[in-house]
Design a protein that fits this description.
326 residues, binds magnesium ion, magnesium ion binding, magnesium, binds 2-succinylbenzoate, alpha/beta, Enolase-like, domain 1, o-succinylbenzoate synthase, 9 helices, menaquinone biosynthesis
Length: 326
């Protein structure tokens, strides 16, 4: 059901949250996460969305996203519906519209895959004590490829029921990536669910997968203009970051394209605030019900806003405390 064109109201909020990005962002360090919220009302219904382009990852700036959002809001109030082109704005607005229209299911997947760097002892301790499905995500590519391989092998050896998602963010040449694999015992390699983007080029990453038997996933590649879903692609998974991708419709079509090819689609964070993250948990439960999403980034932030993540002990800042633009 679409909202009637009369009785519409809208607010836009601007916010900043101190953040310690740790290993999540590599060289692109930021100390403050900034963004916008849109709040749409029609009759007695309400929908929220988060628009927070990620510096170093989004092509658009916050200023550009804000201009697009304010312009769209004016048009929506007068009865228009068409989404802006900028991915962060299209994503946040489409979430707000989906909430308003009741098309974003409430059921959420609040499981996360704990995210960390290659600090063996910490990781082994944390995983040894974990219950249920043991999957962790480890950022590699910081301390030399061979070293990373040794660490990964050690963790797979120490925690016999762990599965790892690894992320190299295109750090390695093919020969470095092969050095990494060389240090992981072949029978442990199947417990690497995937490694995201091991090499600088897609073709090298594919050679790495063929030569080592280690599953690879596309993250950055998925958002490049020459990327296509291809049934002969050796990659086992794709990482979908909605803030960097666009509308819910586009997210849905990528998740469906992956499923048709038998690839795993993983909904993942672009360091959204708790409002956006809880919506990503709902999107994951809806579109990728058999896959734990990659949303372990809330604890990098100083506090939550508007909506709390269940079990989080971070302070929750309500809408009334945020700066309202309209
Ligand atoms: O995917 C996850 O599990 C966590 C999110 C994450 O790693 C990330 C977060 C922001 C920007 C880039 C990345 C990345 O995948 O490299
Ligand atoms: Mg990644």
């Amino acid at each position: 059901m679409n909202s009637p064109k009369t009785n519409r109201t809208a607010h836009v909020y601007k916010w900043q949250i101190p953040i310690d990005v740790g290993v999540a962002l590599r060289a692109k360090r930021i100390s403050c996460r900034e963004g916008l919220y849109i709040e749409l009302r029609s009759e007695d219904r309400c929908g929220w969305g988060e628009i927070s382009p990620l510096p170093g990852f989004s092509a658009e700036s916050l200023e550009e996203a804000q201009d697009a959002l304010l312009c769209w809001t004016k048009l929506w109030l007068s009865g228009e519906e068409e989404l802006p082109k900028l991915p962060s704005a299209a994503f946040g607005i489409s979430c707000a519209l989906a909430e308003l229209n009741g098309t974003l299911p409430m059921k959420a997947d609040y499981r996360t895959v704990p995210l960390g760097g290659c600090e063996t002892e910490k990781l082994v301790d944390k995983l040894a004590g974990a219950k249920g499905e043991k999957t962790a995500k480890v950022k590699v590519g910081f301390s030399g490829a061979a070293n990373d391989g040794i660490t990964v092998d050690t963790v797979l050896h120490a925690v016999s029921d762990v599965r790892l998602r690894l992320d190299a963010n295109r750090s390695w040449t093919l020969s470095q990536a092969l050095d990494f694999a060389q240090n992981i015992r072949p029978h442990y390699r199947e417990r690497i669910a995937f490694i995201e983007e091991p090499c600088q080029s897609r073709e090298e990453s594919r050679i790495f997968a063929r030569q080592t038997g280690i599953a690879i996933a596309w993250d950055e590649s998925l958002r490049e203009s020459d990327f296509t879903f291809d049934s002969s692609d050796i990659a086992k998974a794709v990482v979908i970051k909605p803030t960097l991708t666009g509308s819910l419709e586009k997210i849905k079509s990528q998740a469906e394209a992956a499923r048709r090819l038998g690839m795993t689609a993983v909904i993942s964070s672009s360091l959204e605030s708790s409002l956006g993250l809880t919506q990503l948990a709902r999107i994951a439960a809806w579109l990728t019900p058999n896959t734990i999403p990659g949303l372990d980034t809330l604890n990098l932030m100083r506090y939550q806003q508007i909506r709390p993540w269940p079990q989080s002990t971070l302070e929750l800042v309500p809408a009334e405390s945020l700066q309202r633009l309209i």
